[in-house]
Amino acid sequence: MTDRSAAATAEQPLLWLVATPIGNMADIAPRAVQVLREVSFVACEDTRRTGLLLQRLGIGQRPLLAVHEHNEAVACEQVVKRLVAGETAAYVTDAGMPGISDPGQRLVEAAAAAGVLISVVPGPSAPIAALAVSGLPTQRWIMEGFLPRSGETREARMAEIAVSGRTVVLLESPRRVGATLAELADACGSDRLAVVARELTKLHEEVCRGTLAELATRFGDPPKGEIVVVIGPAASAAPSDDEIQAELANELAAGVSARDAAAAVARKLGVGRNRVYPLAVALAGARD
Q1: What's the per-residue H, E or C state across 209-227?
Q2: Is the dihedral of CA 216, 217, 221, 227 positive or negative?
Q3: Based on the domain organization, do 76 and 159 belong to the same domain?
Q4: pTM of this structure
Q5: Non-local CB neighbours of 43 within 8 Å, separated by 6+ positions
Q6: φ and ψ at 281, to 5 degrees?
Q7: Which of 8, 159, 167, 221 has its CA 20 to 30 A from that of 142?
Q8: Can you say whether residue 77 is alpha, beta or left, with left for phi > 0 and alpha for psi between -120 and 50 degrees?
Q9: Contact 167, 136 (CB under 8 A)
Q10: Considering the domain boundaries, does residue 236 fall inside one?
Q11: What is the pLDDT of residues 114-144, one digit of tens each?
Q12: Cβ distance 175 to 205 under 8 Å?
C-alpha cells in the first residue's frame, strides 16, 4: 500500500482536522472557513452544533456525518472508505482542536493506516489557552484531561500529580470542580499553586489564580461554564520517605494520632497528605 504521507508535496490532503472556536466566533481561522466550504463532506462530533456553526459562518448546508465517541469504530470506517475513494473531508468537534481532549484520535489513526494524507488547520484549544494564560511554567507540561470519577484509579492519578515536576492541565465539570480542587489540595498540598480558567474567550471569561486550598474555597459553590484547571509543578526538591518518616516520628512522639501527624507533616513539608498518611499509619503501627 502506498503511504500518501510520503507522497509529493503537490498532493492535496484528503482529511483536514479543523479547530473551531471555544467561545468567540471571531477566533475561527479564514483557512478553516475555506476548507469547510470546499471539502466533499464534514465529519463532526454533533451534526446539529456543526450545522449551526456552518450557518453562522455563512457556509450554508454541507453534507454532515456524525463521528463521536459512541460510534467511532463504525463511523471511522465509513469516513476512511470515502476518503480512499477520493472524497475529501474536514473533521470538527463541538469546540476546539480535534484529538486534543476531544474525539478525533481514532479517526486520524484509521486514516493514517489507510495511507490517507492528513493535514490540520490549527486554532482554538481550551487546554492550550488555559496553560498560556495561567502564568505557570510551560516548558514541561502534561494534559491529564478528566480525572477518573472515583476509586483507586482516581487516587493513583492524584498521587502522580502530587509528585509531578510538570505543570498539569485538567478538565472538570463546574458541578465537581470545588470538590476536585479540595481533593487535589489534600493530595498535592494546600499551598500548591494553581489556576482555574472559566469560560475562556467568552463574555464572562474568568482566570482565578491562587493555591489549591484557596481555589477550593473560591469554587465551593458550583460556578457556571466550562472549566480548565492548571496546576503548577511540584517542588523540585521533594522530600524523601525517610525525611517524611523522621518528621512523622516527632509528631507521633508528641502523642497525636496518625491522621493528625500526617496532616501536620504534609503542611510542613509541602507534600500531599495522600503520600504522608500511609507512612504515618505504618509508623504508628510499628510503634504499638
Answers
A1: EEEHHHHHHHCCCCCCCCE
A2: negative
A3: no
A4: 0.78
A5: 64, 65, 66, 67, 75, 79, 89, 90, 91, 92, 107
A6: -65, -45
A7: 221
A8: alpha
A9: yes
A10: no
A11: 999 999 999 999 999 999 999 999 999 999 9
A12: no
Number of domains present in the structure of the chain: 3
Residues lower than pLDDT 70 in the chain:
1-10, 236-238, 270, 288
**CA–CA dist 265, 261 (Å, integer):** 6
Q: Find all residues with CB under 8 Å of 193, minimum gap 6, and list them.
A: 136, 209, 210, 211, 212, 231, 232
Cα angle 88, 107, 32 (rounded to 5 degrees) comes to 50
Domain that holds residue 212: 127-231
In degrees, to the nearest 5, what angle opens at C-alpha 60 toward C-alphas 58 and 62?
A: 135
Domain boundary among 109, 124, 139: 124
- Is residue 66 a contact partner of residue 45, using CB atoms and an 8 Å limit? yes
3-state SS, residue 31: helix
